[in-house]
Design a protein that fits this description.
With 408 residues, the chain is α/β, with parallel strands linked by helices. The protein folds into two domains: 130 residues, Aspartate Aminotransferase, domain 1 (Alpha-Beta Complex); 253 residues, Aspartate Aminotransferase, domain 2. 39% of the residues lie in helices and 17% in strands. It has 15 helices and 17 strands. Strand 7, helix 7 and strand 8 form a beta-alpha-beta unit. The structure holds pyridoxal-5'-phosphate. The site of pyridoxal-5'-phosphate (PLP) has 13 residues, from helix 4.
Length: 408
């Protein structure tokens, strides 16, 4: 498949902003949506819009089948052993909150420890901070070095018999570097500590096989990998999920409800209280198909060249500081965060926007990491396989113009 054919599948890429063709480089925040996903949402809204699991009528049956088929598709996609291990959530943030509450209720007590890394998105940090406050547990932090790599050499000293869970991003949303997960997971498991992997950024570039990885929990957001917003997944090994109490309570997550007490449904319903995202969840199926399509060898090779050209173009400028320097091939996703000497990140993003380029600026929901690098914010450019070499060339030229303009 040629890149222009790929782009034709994403009508949103054709947009104009301020009369200029849009160059969408904010993919790490939200990906553009293919027509197949839009159609799946439309199809579900128009022809299968009934509540799930509850009623015996035909429409409810169709909607329920689409929802449960999606669970099977996600199970296969991430390599989980059982379909009950797939819990639908509103996204990664919702998944981490579920986990922090429920795992916390079951397994974390006063004086226990949770480890997060310095490179975490707030979504994989604040829920753990709140859990530790609630339970009088201790939050420990695995730092990063100047190149942005996790200091895994410090991990053995951080882990103790009281460490209940370690939470780490598969790939940092600021640095773009993949964490050495097998090494981290082995070290944690050796001390009896469970591992949660935040796959929000990793899944769309690297995919995942949760059994091969042997993580205990994994989460991702649909909207970052082509699916509808408000969709996401929490994976957990059955042995953990079965031992964890419900997070939210209400309809469909119950066994029996009596005045003298309530019992709960088996997995996965136990963690899916109330009306679910009926129309959004089925869009994960075409999203997974899109992921597979874009993983095609020739497209990957092209995407690699586009990313390399961007990296080289940015590095060639003497006035840019790039964060997250890879030390091995394939370690970095096509995501580049940087600061420019003498130019405020927000000003630069605003000027680029006026020129048609959508980039991210600010703290990127990672304030402790900004503090670590002594900056108030960065500019982030993040690509997906539908981005082109021509867009990158235009961006590098536009960056020149914008920086010159801002320096006056
Ligand atoms: C690494 C990481 N974790 C978690 C999140 C939160 O994802 P969501 O806002 O879809 O819940 C993000 C979003 O940018 C992210 O990049």
């Amino acid at each position: 498949m040629e890149i222009e054919q790929v782009r034709a599948l994403f009508p949103g890429l054709d947009a104009q902003v301020y009369g200029k063709p849009l160059v969408y480089f904010d993919n790490a925040a939200t990906s553009q949506r293919p027509l197949s996903v839009v159609r799946a949402f439309e199809e579900s809204s128009l022809h299968a819009n009934a509540n799930l699991h509850r009623a015996v009528h035909c429409l409810a049956e169709t909607a329920t089948r689409a929802y449960e088929d999606t669970r099977d598709a996600v199970r296969a996609f991430i390599g989980a052993a059982h379909r009950e291990e797939i819990i639908f959530t509103a996204g990664t943030t919702a998944a981490v909150n579920l986990l922090a509450f429920s795992f916390g209720e079951a397994f974390v007590g006063e004086g226990d420890e949770i480890i997060v890394t310095e490179a975490e998105h707030h979504s994989n940090l604040v829920p753990w901070q709140l859990l530790c406050l609630r339970k009088k547990a201790v939050l420990k932090v695995l730092p990063v070095d100047d190149s942005g790599h996790l200091r895994v050499d410090l991990l053995p000293a951080l882990l103790t018999d009281r460490t209940r869970l370690l939470a780490v991003a598969q790939v940092s949303n600021v640095l773009g570097l993949a964490a050495p997960l097998p090494q981290i997971i082995r070290a944690a498991h050796a001390r009896g500590c469970a591992v949660f992997v935040d796959g929000a950024q990793g899944i769309v570039h690297d995919g995942v096989d949760v059994q091969a990885l042997d993580c205990d929990f994994y989460a991702f957001s649909g909207h970052k990998m082509y699916a509808a917003t408000g969709t996401g997944v929490l994976y957990g090994k059955k042995k953990w999920l079965e031992a964890m109490p419900p997070y939210q309570s209400g309809g469909e997550m119950i066994g029996t409800v009596r005045w003298d007490g309530t019992t709960f449904a088996p997995l996965p319903a136990k963690f899916e209280a109330g009306t679910q995202n009926i129309n959004g969840v089925p869009t994960l199926v075409p999203a997974i198909e899109m992921f597979r399509l874009l993983s095609d060898g020739a497209l990957r090779e092209y995407a690699g060249r586009v990313s390399d050209r961007l990296a080289e173009g940015l590095a060639a400028r003497g006035d840019i500081h790039l964060y997250g320097t890879p030390s091995a091939p394939g370690e970095k996703i096509p995501l580049y965060s940087f600061t420019v000497e003498g130019v405020h990140h927000e000003d630069l993003a605003l000027v680029l926007d006026k020129m048609g380029f959508a980039v991210r600026s600010g703290q990127m929901c990672a304030e402790p990491l900004m503090d670590r690098f002594g900056v108030t914010g960065m500019v982030r450019v993040s690509l997906l396989p539908y981005n082109t070499m021509e867009e990158v060339e235009r961006f590098l030229d536009a960056l020149d113009v914008a920086v010159t303009m801002l320096r006056g």
